[in-house]
């Protein structure tokens, strides 16, 4: 039988894990987005459509005593935080990103530099009145942009750093990280299967379920497929695999945010766009290779990157634009294809976002994190569809999307084949 003293010490042992979540973890649905300070004005963000925003981005420097504002003035940062708080939402700042992760490995490598770097990050949080810190290290133990310091000890040191950061920042700071959709690697280069230590100190984790297929891939496909059931076997990643990875590694569903892109890569594809039957039984013409005579079209080159707002505002979803559209079932991605210009744009829409968010609701996930706020239309068509999918609008006064539009997309989807679930 346990003595009172041993029960008390057991309670002390348990306490840090239990109290790791402060007010940063709300337990409510999260509709988050990244604010790209380099291409959007704080005045143009529809704050009331989000529950949280991540200011993007501060970058690492060669010293753990500083991070860089990457050329953005104090007044922009302050304006953004003030507006977010006036709208009643929380905001974190992101440190890292694709071009800003160069020195994480160095700063987390010793106990001394971990403590210094943690104090630096917390002082920046306090200086601008942010509610939290989001670490976007691309990637621990793996090269990203090309000139990052990388060590096999990165992920182990990263965990030690996050524990230090939690103790310096306190329980009420909202601490989050984003993780490559393929997972985080350990010292042996293999994907880590146990991230429970990370889960114990973080409020939220975002699976970066975008850039899964792009203009570097050598074939066409979805930027952010719901399922990869129809994708080439060399490209098995998807929103579904990203979520399953995090849950399998020890993150509770209600701490997981799904990364959603508000931008698309485009390609040039020579028709005719016929459909093939996928291993999951759905039909698809999404995946094209640069081989003449491939079954459903031929990928002949890369086009420009599009923001969703530009695709929508240019009318590419309407037949008058010259684009035809077809919904790819297993990825839940629209294909817009213009037979004259051969422009081929796999893209999301309010309907696919609604459908994806409804599945996140059913899996009891925390919510979504959209990259980024500038890619949506100024009236927030994508983010409003997410809110509806997560069923959070009945309790708010946010105007909902016209039902008719969602229903029309659903009918179009039903006509084609059964709706896949993840
Ligand atoms: C990794 O950590 C171990 C144990 O602390 C240490 O001996 C080793 O030198 C480190 N490796 C690198 C590349 O820093």
TrEMBL record:
InterPro entries: Chitinase_II/V-like_cat, GH, Glyco_hydro18_cat, Glyco_hydro_18_chit_AS, Glycosyl_Hydrlase_18. One of its GO terms (cellular component) is extracellular region. PROSITE patterns: GH18_1, GH18_2. Residues 29-393 form the GH18 domain. GO terms for biological process: chitin catabolic process; polysaccharide catabolic process. Residues 1-20 form the signal peptide. Coiled coil: none annotated. Pfam families: Glyco_hydro_18 (PF00704). It comes from the Eukaryota. Keywords: Carbohydrate metabolism, Chitin degradation, Glycosidase, Hydrolase, Polysaccharide degradation, Signal. It catalyses: Random endo-hydrolysis of N-acetyl-beta-D-glucosaminide (1->4)-beta-linkages in chitin and chitodextrins. One of its GO terms (molecular function) is endochitinase activity. Belongs to the glycosyl hydrolase 18 family. This is Endochitinase. It comes from Rhodotorula toruloides.
């Amino acid at each position: 039988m346990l003595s009172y003293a041993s029960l008390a010490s057991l309670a002390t042992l348990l306490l840090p894990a239990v109290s790791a979540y402060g007010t940063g973890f709300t337990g409510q649905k999260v509709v988050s987005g990244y604010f790209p300070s380099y291409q959007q004005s704080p005045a143009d963000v529809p704050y009331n459509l989000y529950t949280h925003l991540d200011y993007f981005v501060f970058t690492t420097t060669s010293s753990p005593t500083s991070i860089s504002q990457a050329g953005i003035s104090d007044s922009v940062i302050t304006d953004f935080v003030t507006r977010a708080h006036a709208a009643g939402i929380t905001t974190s700042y992101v440190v890292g990103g694709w071009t800003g992760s160069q020195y994480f490995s160095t700063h987390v490598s010793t106990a001394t530099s971990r403590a210094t770097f943690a104090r630096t990050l917390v002082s920046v949080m306090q200086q601008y009145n942010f509610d939290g810190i989001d670490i976007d290290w691309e990637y621990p133990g793996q090269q990203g942009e090309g000139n990052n310091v990388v060590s096999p000890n990165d992920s182990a040191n990263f965990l030690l750093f996050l524990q230090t950061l939690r103790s310096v920042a306190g329980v009420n700071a909202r601490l989050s990280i984003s993780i490559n959709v393929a997972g985080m690697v350990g010292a042996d280069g293999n994907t880590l299967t146990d991230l429970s230590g990370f889960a114990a100190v973080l409020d939220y984790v975002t699976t970066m379920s975008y850039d899964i297929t792009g203009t570097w891939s050598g074939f066409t496909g979805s930027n952010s497929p719901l399922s990869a059931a129809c994708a080439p076997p060399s490209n098995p990643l998807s929103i579904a695999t990203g979520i399953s990875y995090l849950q399998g590694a020890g993150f509770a569903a209600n701490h997981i945010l799904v990364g959603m892109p508000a931008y698309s890569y485009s390609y040039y594809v020579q028709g005719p766009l016929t459909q093939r039957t996928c291993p999951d039984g759905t039909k698809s013409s999404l995946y094209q290779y640069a081989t003449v005579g491939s079954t459903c079209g031929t990928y002949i080159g890369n086009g420009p990157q599009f923001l969703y707002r530009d695709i929508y505002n240019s009318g590419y979803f309407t037949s008058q634009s010259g684009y035809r559209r077809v919904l790819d079932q297993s990825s839940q991605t629209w294909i817009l294809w213009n037979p004259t210009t051969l422009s081929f744009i796999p893209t999301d829409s309010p309907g696919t976002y609604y459908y994806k968010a409804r599945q996140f609701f059913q899996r009891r996930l925390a919510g979504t994190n959209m990259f980024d706020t500038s890619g949506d239309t100024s009236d927030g068509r994508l983010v409003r569809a997410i809110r509806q999918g997560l069923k959070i609008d009945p309790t708010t006064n946010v105007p909902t999307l016209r039902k008719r539009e969602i229903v029309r997309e659903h009918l179009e989807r039903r006509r084609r084949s059964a709706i896949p679930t993840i």
